[in-house]
Design goal:
homodimer, alpha+beta, 34% strand
């Protein structure tokens, strides 16, 4: 069994800094976690907030703190630091080798999609961002790690793609089409989603967009763990 | 201009935990850093040490601390915590968008390779691991970010590949062959290196092996930032 994760991320048009932050870290008891945050507003201020939230969460996860407790702590920390005036969404997607589960933690009104083979479940129970209230709890979904799982989490920039031109993005339909194709890779799913949004926004995204796709497959490849990063440099 | 980074990592044969830790994080003023540590001995204890060192460094880098100061702080922290009895190698490879440079920080007797186009420089000035002495300073190499740069950093498992069977790995020669081919990707470089080592070790690595390859190219692709992780699960 193998887990592959792909992250694709683009900035709002004509801004120098994405307000979205994503980091992937190793879990101390095996497995890994993807932590994604989207800070309120855009540009430098938003980046500062999302970075604060992600850093807080990864520090706690690295100490072995459970995802839900880490999300609550990040919320309390932001609430304390900014007196409840600033919010950030937060998603944690973990492959936990200790419990052999996949854990989706959401402090985000934007849904997450979870598919087992081609059957897609929309995870949309009410959830609010961190930082605005004391004792904000995340919505947590935990499933066994089995081949055929697909998870898609994304920032609201994906949801709002096309709105400037009166169009809209049907993320569920896009994922359905992708899953109907032959074994789509996490990379294909993330890139296709972003490309669809990019076209709807006519190449000028109205917001920062981040897409994270995770796939669990029964592939028995080599035992090599791989990571890759591609960073375009403006110059 | 575009930077691509590939990490390939494999465990010592018949161990459940790699003593090597690698994390990639975003730098607060733009760009990113790869932090790699190899803890003394192997298995669980080594993992604990390398994780401690990497976490300490990424927390400092995220606060905007310079790479050299972060490495010294990690050394002092490990020295204090383990009374100078435990060591870890440490490499930091940073793409710093603020200074537009590539910074290679080494606390590792194992060299790093830096190539400009096909001309390879071996960075091997004496350097010792962190944790054994007070005030251990890293060796730092800083070059301008220009297309055609290649950097290879690796743990000593790559250097010692083949020793069990009386063979040896010529890393410099391998890189030369790869750079002579048409525009090798960071992924190709990292995977080829690991594969060569794997064969020399006859599929049973005598030590944890981590290879990090970085390439700067003049490619003008899309403005999408991408990250990918592939994690084999034993089951």
């Amino acid at each position: 069994m193998e887990v592959s994760i792909a992250v694709s991320k683009v900035r709002k048009y004509a801004t120098s800094n994405s307000g979205d932050t994503v980091e992937v870290i190793e879990r101390p008891n095996g497995g890994l976690s993807v932590v994604m945050a989207d800070g309120q507003s855009s540009g430098h201020g938003a980046k500062w907030i999302s970075t604060l939230v992600v850093r807080r969460v990864i520090t706690l996860l690295a100490d072995g703190v459970r995802d839900g407790a880490a999300a609550r702590a990040a919320s309390d920390a932001l609430y304390t630091e900014r007196k409840g005036k600033v919010s950030s969404t937060l998603n944690i997607l973990s492959v936990d080798k200790q419990t052999n589960t996949l854990v989706i933690t959401r402090n985000n009104p934007v849904p997450a999609l979870l598919a087992v083979d081609e059957v897609i479940q929309v995870i949309d129970e009410p959830s609010r961002p961190v930082g605005l209230y004391r004792d904000t709890r995340p919505s947590i979904t935990e499933v066994s790690l089995v081949p055929g799982l697909t998870v898609l989490i994304y920032s609201d920039g994906l949801v709002h793609a096309g709105e400037r031109t009166g169009q809209s993005m049907d993320i569920l339909a896009c994922l359905r089409v992708l899953l109907d194709s032959e074994e789509p890779s996490a990379r294909l799913i993330a890139d296709s989603m972003l490309e669809t949004a990019w076209k709807l926004d006519e190449g000028r995204p109205v917001d920062d967009i981040t897409v994270v796709a995770l796939r669990v497959t029964s592939v028995i490849g080599d035992s090599v763990r791989r990571m890759a990063v591609r960073l375009p440099l403006d110059s």
